[in-house]
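Two records follow; treat each independently.
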Amino acid sequence: MIRPVISKFLNDLTRVAKTTAFRYSLLFTIAFSILTGISMVMIYQTAAQEIAEQVDARLYTESSRLKREIEYRHNVEFGQPSVGVTERVATEPAMSYCVARLDKLDADLIPQDKNRFVMLNSNFSDLCDFHRESVRKNADIMRIIITPVVDDYALILSYDTRSQRRLLVSMLNIVYLVTGLLLIVSFIGSFLIARNIINSIARISHTARLIVDGDFSERIRTSSNDSDELNQLAGNLNHMLDRIENLITSQRQVTNNIAHDLRSPLNRLRNRMEVALMDKNVSCDELRDVIGQSVDDAENLLKTFNALLNIAQVESRARDDFAETDVSQICTDLAELYEVMSEEGEHSFSSDIAHGLSVMGNRQLLAQAIINLLDNAVKYTPEGGHITLNAARNDKQIVISVSDNGMGIPDGKREEVLKRFVRLDSARSTPGNGLGLSLVSAVIALHGGTINLLDNQPGLRIELWLPTIERYTRRHKKSSVLASKNGKKKT
């Protein structure tokens, strides 16, 4: 049971140790641990210096007091101080003192001036010469001050620093312990961080391998433990995968539709020519008629391919040539054109166009999109029908609508007709290739707008929602700032 766990940990450690995340995390935490250790050592040294200064200050104060007391006794009692007698300071239990002869001390311990003193670390029992073995055996190095007093005598005052040294040793041990714990925690933290990142990247890699193998429905899974950055990355990648899957599905559908819609005219073209070639008695007029019908079929095929090419160009083109475009003027010109056509045809036409409607866009593409909508309205509106073109401002968007009272489109089919080569059964008898609304949808998407197909009761109303110049400029600036930030991060 324990052996597999240890083996797995070692494998994970070997794998994690090679990652950049682990190395940088470990480097950062080790540097932080070292700085913390250095800071604690400095605190230790500061504390040691402060304790030493406090001890010296107490020794100096008490030495001055005892010196005055000994000198007072000598002057009043005319007696010599007691040599070698150790006494404790009543107010300071850690302090002991004795009086020794100067000639018994080493020369380097004797102050040159009686008004000066010598501070040193030494064995108090050795200086006072107790001649007691028990004291000598248990004696510790103490902080000592030697002060000359009357005649040839010196006051030796000591401070037992064992409690302070124990405190400093404890502080030093804590420094070592904390530094060691920080290094261990930094290693474990770096290991966990790197393993978490590796596991997240492994999920992304696993999903990528499945997609490469052909499973385009696979998506990157996220968990509650993932960071916001990884969740955002997974969300963006999943959105990209959705877009790719939709494009691939659309491409397959377009391919199938092309094969289906172009097969019939190509078969007619081939059969007509084969019949003409097989009939040796065909006249010149009949051959001219066959050639004319073949040219018409070829022309329809060229129109279909040109429409596909236009849609592809619109979807892939940039917005570099966008300029301020007067939508009111475009709609007014088209309204005048279709009013003339309605006077000569079978439909009535009306328009309601507001003034001063402008957007950022391509005038030719916008005009082509509106023309496609008007042509569809004319095509699918029965005799005596009415067609309307409206343009107005709605909040922060420009709304262009083309409505009719024709056969309309069922609610469940409205999103479908925006796809390429999609034609309803009711429209099979009319000429067309099912690409008109696809081109309109591509143009509006290029301009950052939306297209809505609504019930006109009866008939169909198609609305084109385009952002105003102010909204388009603000959105474009925001996108540029985000792109610039992403570029700097990548750099």
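The next record belongs to a different protein.
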Amino acid sequence: MREHPNVIAVQDALDAAGACTADGAASQVLILDEGAHTAAAAAAALCIEVGQIANSLIFDADGEPLLVLTSGAHRVDTARVAASLGVGKLRRATPEFVREHTGQAIGGVAPLGHPKPVRTLVDKVLEQYRDVWAAGGVPQAVFPITYAELVRITGGTPADVA
């Protein structure tokens, strides 16, 4: 699985950005024994709080992709996000829309490693954790990173999204 093109793209992007964990170690994609299609499954596999999972959710914002990195303990308030961005219509993207803009499938969308940058919001609640874990391009892949690093490497905007 480590040779999957999406995993390679994510690790390459992490390496190029110099992304690191709270201990200062380089962020490395870890391959889980089984796919973690939900925040709860990923948290259980990693023995961490579900809130430490940075869910990568792609939305269709007036036809443009919007990536919202939200705590696994939250649901995105689409009306609030749309209003804060001045977007007329914000809805969950179709699997085809997600793949077109990220090159990845729902359930394994990483916050980086996409064909081109995607506008990104990062849930401020994630800041309370020493490290957060994000998907690595496929459902079995995850990586640790600090909140500040996640914001930096994605070019994301900290936001209240729940």
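Discussion point: The helical segments are 5-17, 39-46, 78-85, 95-102, 147-154. How would you locate this feature using only the token line?
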